[in-house]
Amino acid sequence: MDCELRFPTMVRYPEPEVFARSVRGAHIVDARRRGKYIFLGLEGGATIVVHLGMSGQLRLVDPQTPFESHTHVVFGLDDGRQLRYRDPRRFGRLLYGTEPELIAMRALPDLGPEPIDPAFGAGDLYRRIHHRRAPLKALLLDQAAVAGIGNIYADESLYRARLRPDRRGNTVSKNAAVRLHQALRESLELGIANRGASVDTYRDAWGEIGGQQEQLLVYGRAGQPCFNCGRPLSLVRIAGRSTVFCRRCQH
DNA sequence: TTAAATTCCTGTAAGC
DNA sequence: TGCTTACAGGAATTTA
Fold this sequence. Notes:
Layout: E1 2-5, E2 11-13, H1 16-23, E3 28-34, E4 37-42, E5 47-51, E6 57-61, E7 71-76, E8 82-86, E9 93-97, H2 99-104, H3 122-129, H4 136-141, H5 151-160, H6 174-193, E10 234-238, E11 241-245
Parallel strand pairs: 2-9
Antiparallel strand pairs: 1-7, 3-4, 4-5, 5-9, 6-8, 7-8, 10-11
The chain binds a DNA duplex through loops.
């Protein structure tokens, strides 16, 4: 594999020159995900870690493909294709290292459990939120509490669970935690089945848009009727994020 | 320890 | 038409 850093500051760890030198000649042997992080496993145990941020895209293309604007990193793969990292808003980041090293260097944060992990139960979720005074919306966005939930799936899950986004974690009953646990799984699994929500610029590795934006129940629907009761959906700001919910259906 | 506010960044859309 | 302004959001960092 070859590596060209066209915008070196996308690399957060280690120094960009070290990143490029380390990656050149390495071979990718697997790809996996943890929370919102993508791990490209390399021979020998190190990994390339990619976080797409808001507008990041990884694209697998033929080298003849014209360069799109904001293409910051190009990996030349051994089979002749290129893996291009593109990110107009540059909120994303790339890292290189073994997982223990990255955690020790605080380049990777502590991540909570995966909502879709079969080992993650409603009791686990309850234990993680029932002692917190922050609003549920903020807790779902906290990657140390639960990994992988962003603004879209936080709103969708709270609506499915019929819980107000400004409800404090410590006011949630075990029963409500069961509903939220189920709702998180449903929202994420539906999003995965529909190959992602291309509300904004999201594209998969082949440039294809997802379909989940057509299925959203509340996100982006402020002022439009609730699918359950018909009342216009409310828009508020919680944890610095726009938040859409139904005042009649969510408690 | 936890919660809230601030910051980064650019494309897009609304408003004048 | 063209300019200015507000807004979108993940998470590290700072402040309370």
